[in-house]
Specification:
The protein has 4 helices and 2 strands; from the N terminus they run ααββαα. It is mainly alpha-helical. The chain has a two-stranded antiparallel ribbon with strand order 1-2. Strand 1 (about 30-35) and strand 2 (about 40-45) form a beta hairpin. Helix 1 packs across helix 2 (about 15-25) and helix 3 (about 50-70) crosses helix 4.
């Protein structure tokens, strides 16, 4: 996926996404290479090591989310997520250049 496409998918500025990928690339968890069709575009891909770490981290993340919802309340925890989704669904892009 291009860095721009990845940034758009998670509602992040493209420049911030590129900066956030650099340490992951240094650790060998992702690769970032020029696109074949357009050398100006950069393609980010997860490596096998990155995928392995993601699979190991996902159950831990889910457990922490469950603990948070237990202590904060399911409805209360859902409220900010719903609000953030509503902002994104408006098409508002404060990160747009």
């Amino acid at each position: 996926m291009t860095i721009t496409g990845l940034a758009d998918t998670i509602a992040m500025d493209r420049t911030t996404m590129a900066s956030n990928l650099k340490p992951l690339a240094r650790e060998g968890l992702v690769t970032v290479e020029p696109a074949a069709a357009d050398r100006r575009a950069r393609i980010a891909a997860i490596t096998p090591d990155g995928l392995s770490r993601l699979k190991a981290a996902l159950p831990l993340w889910k457990a922490v989310q469950a603990r948070f919802e237990e202590s904060f309340g399911t409805d209360e925890a859902a409220r900010p997520r719903t609000s953030l989704k509503a902002v994104i669904d408006t098409g508002f892009q404060p990160w747009a250049e």
